Amino acid sequence: MNWRRMPLGYVQANAYIWKNEHGECLIFDPGGEAQKLISYVKEKQLTPLAVLLTHAHFDHIGAADEVRAEWGVPLYVHENEKEWLTNAELNGSARLIGNGITVKEAEKLITSEGTLQIGSFTLEMFHTPGHSPGSVSYYSAEEGFVISGDTLFEGGIGRTDLVGGSQEVLLQSIHNKLLSLPESTLVLSGHGDETTVLTEQEQNPFINGFSL
Fold this sequence. Notes:
- The chain has helices at about 35-45, 60, 65-70, 95, 165-180, 195-205; strands at about 5-10, 15-20, 25-30, 45-50, 75-80, 110, 115-120, 120-125, 135-140, 145-150, 150-155, 155, 185-190, 195.
- The protein is an alpha/beta fold.
- The protein has one domain (about 5-205): Ribonuclease Z/Hydroxyacylglutathione hydrolase-like (Metallo-beta-lactamase, Chain A, 4-Layer Sandwich).
- The mean pLDDT is about 95.
């Protein structure tokens, strides 16, 4: 297994570290506890190439500044949420925890779906809005996983009562983008344990019975 799940921050949102055979890695959704994450990466003697966000809610961005400053790497976020990084009202921290969490602007804005190449890492990026307008999912066919953020969970789906949320759009994203992946694909969610596309097709009560 070339990836590691690490729950971090206020609500233990899942950060993911994906490494290759050269000791390089990508870091997804560093939500908090920057020193815990940095210490792990250094202990494993990994060299980060980038920080990628599935979306810009506070619990997924909290350690982004410290991590990218440590290694001088860029931060990727969808263009629909570029302002959320610096706005505590948009990213939910002002409302949900009463403590404004913001980070610096992203160096890289994701503007369209397609292949994302970072060093030797190849990802397919899907725009999967609904939980938030700039939610994206990162798929590796070679590794057989999709990092879904807060779009799809084991037995659940993302909440849609925050800024820009829509349950109809969310379910369309899940059906059109995620459930169309191979059934054996691991779904690495923003909270909780991993699951598979097949498991969610068959058992997720929020998905079954929904028709486009």
